[in-house]
Amino acid sequence: MSNAAPLLDVQDVSKIYGGSGGLFGFGLGSQVRALDGVALTVGEREIVGLVGESGSGKSTLGRLVVGLERPTSGHIILNEAARPGPPRGKARSLGPQIIFQNAVAALNPRRTVKDAILEPAVVHGLLTGPADAFVHRLMDSVGLPASLKDRRPHELSGGQCQRVVIARALAASPKLLVCDEPVSALDVSIQAQVLNLFLDLYDETGCSYLFISHDLPVVERLSHRIAIMYLGRIVESAPTKALFAKPLHPYTEALIASVPDIEQQRRTFHPVSGEIPSPLSPPSGCHFHPRCPHAMDVCRVVQPPLLAIEPGHFSACHLNTPPAFAAAGASGPLG
Amino acid sequence: MTSSPPVLEVKGLRTEFHMGRSRLCAVNDVSFSIGRGEVMGLVGESGSGKSVTGYSIMGLVDPPGHIVDGTIRLHGKDLRGLPERQMNAIRGDRVSIIFQDPMTALHPTLRIGQQMIDAIRAHRSVSRSEAWRRSRDMLGRVGIPSPGERLSAYPHQLSGGMRQRVCIAIALLNDPDLIIADEPTTGLDVTIQAQILAEMQALVAARGTALIWVTHDLAVVANIADSVAVMYAGSIVERGPTDVVLRRPSSPYTVGLLNSVPSRNQGASRLSQIPGTYTPAVSEEAVGCRFAPRCPRADDACTVFPALTAAATGAPGHEVRCHHPYAAREGRLSHV
């Protein structure tokens, strides 16, 4: 959050799948633009929430950030601290790590907890002391009793498996942790435990998070800043408080209004109409215009740019009028 | 909660799964009743027995599962032990169920229209064209655009939200007295969930259908249910009018569950959490309160399985299964 280069700087990144003929000529010419000119930063010690519904491209962005896939265009820049250290150096970072939604599937069913946690450290030469001490320290930091170290995934609960996956990610001492729906599959009481673990680890390790979720209350609880995605584009990004106090984009408004509120009793829903369009043939202009209650003619034709409407609060909507300072070149979501 | 006779009355329901020598009790002493037009939320975490309760009512528990005790009365008639033929006549007609995953609930190789027409003609002697007309009208009513064309579509040609709407339409086709909705919006995006909640609210209100909404999501229950029953490890631990249970909870489990909801914890440095892990499968020999190992109020008394008793709030129908329930004031949730 300082003026130094952000930990992660995603610059105008697009990712296109398909389109090059496809297997045996199937799907010829059909392209999915999973990400379309996405810009996002994550600062040091910052938790950024990335929220969107299915098909919004939020997971694709997470995969690009950890290098599981390459962007079709644009740049993903990690600053010095977040980049992988020199090979074979001791106690180096391996760069950003990722935690997936399905922890049970992310673990090898035949390998023990100890093996799972130890493997990245052994493969990349990160081990700084005795293996047992290394495993115990990591298990302790995620709240797993050391007695579980010889268990296999099927002998653990879903919450415990998620803790193992988190410990394994921490073994690479990342500065940036990409969490892709890490608590979606967990029950409410277990979800609270794992969210607390994320908060504790943030305090202890000073690690930044890119926290991907469809669950607005979870992200609100955790993040300093939130970016809202819709069909491959970021439509709004703002500090968490500002986003909920004054959502600027109609989609953000609709999203907030759709979340059932436990404090409210017996309410009538006024849902936004329509479905999320297929990413194979996204609507022209602003992707949200077919469902937007305020859609105008211009929305069908021109894609609204993501502009700073207020300091630190960006929105991509023709209804938002950027103040004068935006005209002076302050566009794009600077950290 | 209503003075008219209840649509469904479940008393002392016990459903066990016999696995080899061990017997796992998935549903234990579950009782509730639901009146016309009433919406009841059945809330619990995975393995709490909320779905098995729904399946037991529908007569869908297959071996190794057995309903070993209790009565399930629909308009006073006990469904338990009813011959399969009579049960088939009731299922899909007087009582219908909506499952969580519409893709497995719908037949993948039959057109939507065929599946809907079959559902009508299994219970009503109407012509195909009349059944087709009713199906089209029902698709329109659950918010599917151009319903006439959708009738000739296959399930895979529809989106997840549309498929779930088709399942809801099928459940409503024969104007049932009771619908059991088993987490019907869990797999859907939040804007689509809001649409379906709105439609279900309107549909049951217009027809006076009783609705049991099985879910793990307390916020959904807060928004659509008149009454709520909270399940833990096979038993109802607390039940009552939704606003009373959610605002003045009495059972330590309900209090813990409500406090773990992220939106209730804004501003606090950590979320409040229930300690320990949840062990869903309860062997027959288990004694005492199932929540005791995780409960901050547990003591020696909790080695005896508690009965459902009136809660301290005195609200009509507010009951709790606990030896040390929170008093009317204590249970009130403080907002941090």
TrEMBL record, chain A:
SUPFAM superfamilies: P-loop containing nucleoside triphosphate hydrolases. The keyword Nucleotide-binding applies. It holds the Pfam family oligo_HPY. GO terms for molecular function: ATP binding; ATP hydrolysis activity. Residues 8-256 form the ABC transporter domain. Keywords: ATP-binding, Nucleotide-binding, Transport. The keyword Lipoprotein does not apply. One of its GO terms (biological process) is peptide transport. Coiled coil: none annotated. It is a peripheral membrane protein. One of its GO terms (cellular component) is plasma membrane. PROSITE patterns: ABC_TRANSPORTER_1, ABC_TRANSPORTER_2. It is found in: Cell inner membrane. Belongs to the ABC transporter superfamily. This is ABC transporter ATP-binding protein.
UniProtKB/TrEMBL annotation, chain B:
GO terms for biological process: peptide transport; transmembrane transport. Pfam families: ABC_tran, oligo_HPY. One of its GO terms (molecular function) is ATP binding. PROSITE patterns: ABC_TRANSPORTER_1, ABC_TRANSPORTER_2. SMART domains: AAA. One of its GO terms (cellular component) is plasma membrane. Its main location: membrane. It is a peripheral membrane protein. Keywords: ATP-binding, Cell membrane, Membrane, Nucleotide-binding, Transport. It is found in: Cell inner membrane. Belongs to the ABC transporter superfamily. This is ABC transporter ATP-binding protein. It comes from Acuticoccus mangrovi. The lineage of its organism: Bacteria, Pseudomonadati, Pseudomonadota, Alphaproteobacteria, Hyphomicrobiales.
